[in-house]
Design brief:
- The strands form three sheets. This protein has a 14-stranded parallel β-sheet. A three-stranded antiparallel β-sheet has the order 1-2-3. It has a two-stranded parallel ribbon with strand order 6-8.
- It has a domain of about 70 residues.
- The two termini are about 30 Å apart.
- Helix content is about 30%, strand content about 15%.
- With about 600 residues, it is an alpha/beta fold.
- The chain is flat.
Amino acid sequence: MNHTTEEIKALTSKSEDQQSNGSAITRPSNKESSPKIFKLTIDCFDEIFEYLSLKDLHSFGQTCKTMQKVAGEYFKQNYSAAEKFCAKDGIYTIYSDSESVIDERIWISYFNQSMPCISHHFERLDPLRYLRSHIDEFKSIKHICFVSLNLNREKVQFIQKILPKIEVVQIKNGHATGNLHELMLKYCDNLKKIYVQNSDSSFNGKFEWLLADYPHLSHLELIPNHLHVIEELSEFFTRNPKVQRFSTSGVFLWANRNELVKTKAKLNILEIKSNHFLGYGDSIWDLLKQLHSQGFYKRLFLYTDGVNQDLSIKLASLPNLETLCVRWFSGNYNLTCLTNLKELILLDGLNVADAEILANGLVKLERLYVDKATVEDILPFIRQSAKLNKLKMLPKDEKDSEEDATPIYYNYYDYYNDEDSDDESENDEQEKIHAGGEGKSGDKVENQVENKNDSEIRDENRIHNGDCFSAEEKPSNDDNDGDNIDQNDGPKAEANMENIAGNSNSKSNSIDNSIAHKNLDDGQDDGQLNSFSNGRVLNLVALNKERGKLPNARKVTIYVRDDVFLATKWATKNGDTHLKYIEMKRSDSYEWNHHY
């Protein structure tokens, strides 16, 4: 981000009107000298924050109101894609750091003002009460998500005040009691995206909310949890000509083929999420070709559980297939014949042999997402995919190598406990449960996905959704509007920040020891590219040199989990992660919106 000194002055300036506003930024009184740290520009703060874990960044934001805003802005820019879920005592997210912390929960309510998205899971009312009592803090909110929730008038009233700000409404594995438009959508004045995923949005068998006008809507995802023929669908596209992207399942597409064929809609993107494309024979492929020929869509995005030789041939026959997401990847099966493919998402790893073949054949590939990956897995794309410019890689951890052949799909968005409990011992037990963690029983929190019908996919993972602080961790005062933050950005704030800096120095020493003080710019063989897992270091210099050898190569931004990002940042000379051909960023800074 490019910031000027005027911007930092704007954050720390205080007008007469702001003096009467409890939420305004306060500066030191005339009797106090301004701490020297406030002479830094926001660009300087951004560079400091690059070395901090999310936990440390949140601590930095608690030192004073100025730092709450400055750190909050960095949070908004670099953690926009991380889910922020609401509990009865505040907002939480999942974080990793370079000290072997992987996908653990962290309380982040001091960043409420910088929160672009929040989600609420299950039927509890306490998290909704928290939202209502802190509603004025959510100044940046644009996206709200409800998971496994019966959405009714009572629940909507808790958050109705922020609905005019909402641009994205997402309902997942839930149910709407009433006409969804009258219930909530009509209050969203700037609504741009609606996701109804494995949910029932009908009322008395009707989808009347589809007959409303949504003047700003550009994307509709509609995957009912029961098979419906929706007569209102054709009218929806007529009433909302600005919709340019429609996402649904293969089952729904086929059941509503007549409604879609007769519509005069002209979409940019049709997105199909299905786990059994081959069950329709040639029929669904002919339908997709027909819809394309009549101008219903220009670009095609497909999601599938797996691929085989037959499916590869079918996919190659489709016009303008640009995105392919594969849940379980067992081989390339001649996917190189997908000559127009621009985005490939692999959620279960990739071996080097297949990577070589795909990198050589997918000549138009621009974006690559690989879960359970090593540097060796993505190196062929660095060397051969000239048009590649975005690459997200999540590391292959030790737990991945211990898994059996049964496919396991980890979704950190869905670790929630679906039962309320006030029992202290049970809460303590649930405290220990996080992604891949264990409770007293030793049962791992996993979401095992079987070959299910679209209507059967449900959230099955668990996470505690309550008071997640120990007595030592939790702030003693309410965090409403930053009241327990120092009201003066004075000596105490500077002392607090020096304390954080001391902790970060200690962290850096630990990281230095873990990598045996290796400097990646001096003395390391550039040809030996290290694989990585928890906290391992990416050799950006070597990757940059490899990329530079490819004629006409575009610069590649590599999005990595925070543990990899921090270890690499601390180990790299001068912290330089923005090279000529390679740049590294935090994985949550980019919304890779596959929702599969």
